[in-house]
Write a structure and sequence with these properties.
Blueprint (H helix, E strand, L loop, with lengths): L1 H21 L11 E3 L23 E4 L5 H6 L4 E4 L4 E4 L2 E12 L2 E10 L7 E11 L2 E6 L10 E5 L2 H13 L1
Antiparallel strand pairs: 1-5, 2-3, 2-9, 3-4, 4-5, 5-6, 6-7, 7-8, 8-9
């Protein structure tokens, strides 16, 4: 009986010593997201400029790459990102960004409050995840009714001509 208690005590002592020796080591993979409060979401830097080392997709219009990419861009794309307006939209859904979190290098999480034509007057909260694929392409995944039900997909930055067309239409509208 005393032998079992002694083994148990020795095991716990060794575990405690191991944990204490690791206490000062960095835990990069386990660190939580670095959040920015709403008031600090967009500071005095240019809207699409982030702090050093933090990735942000470019302001503008994005469309699903593939066969009809140019046509989709010509129809104002599938997604628009407006950092200066604190806004992201797609289709008939427009979302105000309430919180931005850096989740990993090249990845961000946006907590948003959205309005949609099919939910007139009833804003709802969602989450949008953006990940850098390359210089002009992002991966976008969003919740639907608070759950990740859809797989998400790639979005490529539309050509300059489409960016100007969308920008001009916003100035007129």
């Amino acid at each position: 009986m005393k032998l079992n208690r002694m083994k148990h005590f020795t095991s716990l002592s060794m575990l405690a010593a191991l944990l204490l020796s690791c206490a000062g080591l960095p835990t990069h993979a386990q660190e939580g997201p670095k959040s920015l409060s709403n008031k600090n979401l967009f500071n005095k830097r240019a809207p699409n400029k982030s702090a050093p080392g933090q990735w942000r997709p470019k302001d503008g219009t994005y469309a699903t790459p593939g066969r009809n990419f140019d046509a989709r861009c010509g129809e104002y794309g599938d997604t628009q990102i407006d950092w200066s307006g604190n806004f992201i939209s797609g289709g008939e859904e427009g979302c105000k960004i309430t919180k931005l979190s850096d989740t990993a290098p090249g990845s961000i999480r946006l907590d948003v409050v959205c309005d949609s034509a099919d939910r007139e007057g009833h804003p709802y909260k969602e989450i949008i995840l953006l990940k850098k694929i390359d210089k002009k392409t992002i991966f976008l995944r969003e919740t639907q009714d608070g759950k990740f039900k859809r797989p998400g997909g790639s979005m490529a930055y539309c050509p300059d001509s489409a960016q100007r067309m969308y920008s001009d239409s916003r100035k007129k509208g």
